[in-house]
């Protein structure tokens, strides 16, 4: 439940952020597509290798979040954060491998 709320909040507000910063929305679409495509791979890794994969994936996610917080005005950092938010979701590992 909470994971869906977090992802839903990010998806609803990031479009406004891109519009406010006068960035093309197709960049947002590309980041979301890339992130969710990578999620297929990362969730398969979690199923195959087990719960211990949560730590390395969480570190990738944390790195993307730090970049997004420190460089909020840079498109590359926000793009990276969006990809990490979608790709390195650990709900599969937490909810029951």
Beta-strand content bin: under 5%
Looking at the chains present, what oligomeric state does this protein adopt? single chain
**DSSP strand count:** 0
Inertia-based shape: elongated
> Which range best describes the helical content: under 10%, 10-25%, 25-40%, 40-55%, 55-70% or over 70%?
over 70%
Distance between the termini: 17 Å
User: Could you give a short account of the major beta sheet?
Assistant: none
Q: What integer is the average pLDDT?
A: 84
Cα radius of gyration in angstroms:
14 Å
Tally of DSSP helical segments: 5
Residue stretches low in confidence (pLDDT < 50, at least 5 long) are none
| Structural category | mainly alpha
Output the helix-strand order: HHHHH
Characterise this structure.
With 97 residues, the protein is mostly helical. 82% of the residues lie in helices and 0% in strands. The chain contains five helices and no strands. The chain has helices at 2-20, 25-49, 54-70, 75-87, 91-96. Helix 2 (25-49) runs parallel beside helix 4 and helix 3 runs antiparallel to helix 4 (75-87). The longest helix has 25 residues, at 25-49.
Task: Indicate the topology.
Elements lengths: L1 H19 L4 H25 L4 H17 L4 H13 L3 H6 L1
Question: What features would you highlight for this structure?
Answer:
97 residues; 5 helices; 0% strand
Summary, kept brief:
The protein has helices spanning 2-20, 25-49, 54-70, 75-87, 91-96.
């Amino acid at each position: 439940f909470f994971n869906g709320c977090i992802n839903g909040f990010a998806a609803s507000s990031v479009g406004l952020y891109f519009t406010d910063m006068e960035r093309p929305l197709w960049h947002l679409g590309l980041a979301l597509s890339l992130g969710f495509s990578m999620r297929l791979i990362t969730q398969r890794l979690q199923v195959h290798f087990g719960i211990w994969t949560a730590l390395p994936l969480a570190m990738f996610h944390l790195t993307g979040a730090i970049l997004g917080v420190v460089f909020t005005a840079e498109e590359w950092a926000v793009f990276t954060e969006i990809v990490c938010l979608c790709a390195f979701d650990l709900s599969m590992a937490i909810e029951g491998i």
